[in-house]
User: Fold these one by one.
Assistant:
Number 1:
Amino acid sequence: MAGPGQIPGRYNLIIADEYEAFDHQMPVEEFLQRLKDDNVPDEVSVVGLADAFRDGDLAVNLAQEMDRRANDLEYQSPTVQFVFDGSFHRSGKTYDLRDGEELHSLQEVFGPQLERKEDGNWLLAPF
């Protein structure tokens, strides 16, 4: 059975140190390339999304590629974690990532179907 923060077939958004992250960790840029190459590992933790939001283009490119590869990922059903420093902030029906003084809309990358799990330090999003 999958542990908290490790549900297969979904994006698991977790706060660092609140849930166990996988040993196999990669930066957003590598994950984006793995998506393009159809080479996403079965279990992976993606780090550095806050930096990708600051870059702007990287977050947009990631969102587009995640959307383009959604059907393949649903079929392959890997367990993908996005690990964040900071905290999640609920804003109406959506969630933001609080990174220091900045808020980044998680909806921009993961779409509107974010689901809160447990105490709010873990969110789920469909592929």
Note: The radius of gyration is 13 Å.
Number 2:
Amino acid sequence: MKQSLRATLLELVVGVVLGGCMLLLGSWAGAKLGSGASNGWGDIIGALFGSVLAFPVGFVAGMWLMAWRLHFPHSLWRGIFGAALGLVLVLLLAEPLRLNRDSRVMGTLLYLVPSVAALFGFNQPQHESGSAGRR
């Protein structure tokens, strides 16, 4: 149990650090891609869009890097699915739950929910397939 908690905390820290780096890169790339919009808001919208998409990618990559380096059990695809599902849930529930009324709440949830969902999915035990359970 102690090793599992330590591994999860290491994955979390490395995921946040790499996710933060990807957030900066995604913000910069989104601002550059959106700067050509004629209404003047393209760079801001592009930076926000880029950061919201890049942070979960960096977070999952950081968790995977730590788990791979230290040979901890993990499920990369479940981590990716958790991050995507968390992001989609926040975006879908923003209007019904009035999350978009306060930009601090919405911004926090756009980064927090996908990270928690990815961490949960990433650390789900993998089921081994084999003939041991068959008779």
Note: The chain has four helices and no strands.
Number 3:
Amino acid sequence: MRDADEPSLDELLMGAARALRRRWATGLGPDLSPHDARALRVIGHHGPTRLGVVADHLLIAPRSATDVVDRLESRGLVHRSPDPADRRAMTVSLTEVGESVLAEVDEARREGAADFFGALSDRERASLATILGRLDPRGPREG
């Protein structure tokens, strides 16, 4: 039985996730929100791609994905072009500036995660990865 003063597993997990997210967000600088950075990663890792793919990966409505891509496009990080497979559809891909920003974001994310999880031993990190993989309904994923 758990002591009433001890945090529950869900509280511990959410607290750790918030701490990791804060650490990662500090590496984004003032111009890029964590949500926009995630969209940039999706586009960079799946692009050129349709907005529906971006929406699916971000778990948002297609209209919201349009808003996110509009913000990224206005900053020169992505551009739209006609889908060669369907003239009625558009794809989105990174610009050279977007590729550079994504590289910086990915590096900040790796450094933040290494620092955050550095408090754990190799064995603890492996156990945590196994446990979280089992709990994630999407299953283990890359990057």
Note: The CA atoms of residues 44 and 136 lie 23 Å apart.
